[in-house]
Amino acid sequence: MLKAVFFDLDGTLLPMDNDAFTKGYFKMLIKKLAPRGYEGQTLIDAIWTGTAAMVRNDGSRTNYEAFWETFAATLGERVYEDQPLFEEFYNVDFNAAASLCGSREISGRAVREIKDMGLRVILASNPIFPVQAQLNRMGWAGVDPADFELITSYEESRYCKPNPKYYSELCKQLGLEPEECLMVGNDVDEDMVAQTLGMKVFLLTYDMINRHDKPIDCYPHGTMEAALEYISSLVTESTNK
Question: Pairing state of beta strands 200-204 and 120-123?
Fold first, then answer.
């Protein structure tokens, strides 16, 4: 029986070109931190190094700890003194990056319709950002954080996509079996990997990311409207059993 739907954020609920968004976001962050003596490319390289540490996280520490320990090892302990500046950036300046994203009216409607089906809804966005950044981007997407039972972020998570343990940890935390869950996302590698645990999946084909040109016919796929129809059919099927 389907009990919960997990949603990716970037490219799923929130339309975006990942490359364009990342470039614009980094430009804003550099502008914010330049007065503190951070050199642009050095800062970007350190962020990517910290991000890689989160992706490799083996569960022994939070993604927050993995990022900041690696970030400090690259740029020096002074980064801890500047943490309030980073927090201010995500609370305030980061919202200007909304202009780099699109919007789809159906995103908020889809979440509400799925809740009306009696299903639990989880934001399973790759937890490489602070929770405030997740909340901001949800606002840009026109979805209400109050509609989500759980929102993953780097403060709490101990794994990242595409590690299947990211999904198994979520299921355990929510008291769910993987077979009771469905993952909706646009990334063939990061989102569809949930299927290896026994989770159901739906691949959104707009803003789709398929780095290795994998065949997608093995996954239910299409638009958000098609995803809603698929989820509704699963609920009906469960009800009729």
Answer: unpaired
